[in-house]
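Hey all, quick one. A colleague (J.T.) asked me to put the FE2/S2 (inorganic) cluster job into the tracker so the inputs and the structure tokens live in one place instead of scattered across chat threads. No bug as far as I know, just bookkeeping. Sequence used:
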Amino acid sequence: MTTDQLKYQGHARVSFRAEDPELTHTGPRTPAGEYFRRHWLPVAMTEQVSETPLALEILGEALVIFKDLSGRIGLLHRQCAHRRASLEYGIVAENGIRCCYHGWLFDIDGTILEVPGEPEGSSIPDTICQGAYPVREYQGLVFAYMGPSDTVPDFPVYDTMDQKGVANEMVPYYIDYPCNWLQVAENPMDPFHSVFLHTRVTRAHFNPAWGEMPVVDWHRMKGDTGIYLTNARMWQNYLWVRTAEVFLPMVAQPPDIYQNPDKEKFFPRVGITKWTVPVNDHACKIIAWRHFNDTLDADGKGDRASVGANKIDFVGQTGVERSYEEGQKMPGDYEAQVSQGSITVHADEHLGHTDYGVARYRAMLKKAIRKVESGGGVAAPSLNDDGTIPTMAGDVIVEASKLDPDDRETRRKLATQIGEIVQSTLGLSEGSRADEIERQVRDLMAPYR
Ligand code: FES
Ligand SMILES: [Fe+2]
């Protein structure tokens, strides 16, 4: 192709293609939708759930969530099983919720307790029910399982959600996005955007270490339950390796979002644990916790008070905190992801080397979706003795003054070995895990100090 053939080619390149429905459509009875429905998903913050019913949409389903007068949380199909009035106008009762239109009373499991206008002995309560889903509350978030009632998986407790011996505060939050779930969920597989979006292009991070180009590798997780990556920068005299993973379908844990590699640190854990939950094909939510503890955010940039409903303590993450013009001057993840379009068209992309993790994540999702579609199950992660799911995300910062910053191959090799050390310590409690990582990393790095 001559360079002239690449000039003024708007007409030839105008988009006419469609999104990939297999990955992006999650409504009822779609392949990805059925796959999502095999997992526990957060649906709301506990503080949103009260005796006034809240209308929700999750995976394209209209739902209502409420707390009944005995304090139990119910998650029901929003339209009443009788003649489809919305239960967002229902009145909560001691047990369940009563539809405003003809007074049918539904328990939180969807069984019908009363049909007051019907003759005594009516068979209706014995033959029909309201759609309902089991819920579980954990640390200020409400999770639901929206799949077949005979395949309820264990509730997932990642080790970062139960850090033994660490005073770890978990502050719940959510963020609404007017775009498809996948373009939000795939962002953590692309750590290169931190160099450009967060640092070189916008200066949003104000920490120049983030603007260094990392050496990144993506690694297989046992059982294909997700992908973990090693992300290695040289900064001053330090080798800074971030490990992070995405568990399928869309659980991600960025390490400390304000990390500053200015001294040795051995495995401070995660700044965020987040789920990207499809609302419908054109909207999604991040529902998550921000973590605060003594090993994170040494420079004190975080702020608990700025974490909650549509807010988080990092610029450019929501559509409500700033004007359009402010977003144009200093765009963040929110502007980058939402502006990809209502549903990003993969056929119009041109992926490069830095997109390897995104491509691999999509391929793994497809495989997992097809497995469920053909009657298979969902791969379950292995568990620690205490029942938690071991995770990899954290930072290792170690002195490496003799490591040549231009020797990317040695850096790559060391980062992979540090990833293996982090992996070898899965299952240890937080304190002894950090000690063991420090011991092994110091041994590994002895020739480079
Ligand atoms: S529509 Fe709900 S009771 Fe009639
Ligand atoms: Fe980002």
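Adding what we noticed when we looked at it: The first strand starts at residue 40 and ends at 45. Residues 40-145 form a domain with the Rieske Iron-sulfur Protein fold (CATH 2.102.10.10).
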